[in-house]
Amino acid sequence: MMQLDLVFDALASRPRRQILAYLSEVELSTSDLAERFAMTAPAISRHLSVLEKAGLVTSERRGQFVFYKLNGDNLVNTLTGYAFEVCPVGRPLKQEARALKKRTAKG
């Protein structure tokens, strides 16, 4: 599959778009994301795998946890981030992620 096909396949899923909205503001682990969705950690992991394969997120292992963040060098993410600012579904998720980022930075 071509890279562009992988990106469109990744973005075709609403849960993956919601995950990207969270990750656009803060770095999170699989378990952090699973808490925010009505999904198991393995289901979130499968979505993250698709996003990573498409080059939309990157991961870093720290101890027993793997943290994911948006791949800021990806043009699609830049465009998607803009779309989330005006999207009625994405905007609240970004706002929640910003608040989480602030709480994490303080604590």
UniProtKB/TrEMBL annotation:
The protein's superkingdom reads: Bacteria
Instruction: Kindly give the Pfam families that the UniProt entry links to this protein.
Output: HTH_5
Keywords per UniProt: DNA-binding, Transcription, Transcription regulation
PROSITE patterns cross-referenced by the UniProt entry:
HTH_ARSR_2
* Molecular function terms from GO: DNA binding; DNA-binding transcription factor activity
Instruction: Enumerate the spans annotated as HTH arsR-type domain.
Output: 1-90
Q: What is this protein called?
A: HTH arsR-type domain-containing protein
Q: Which organism is the protein's source? A: Usitatibacter rugosus
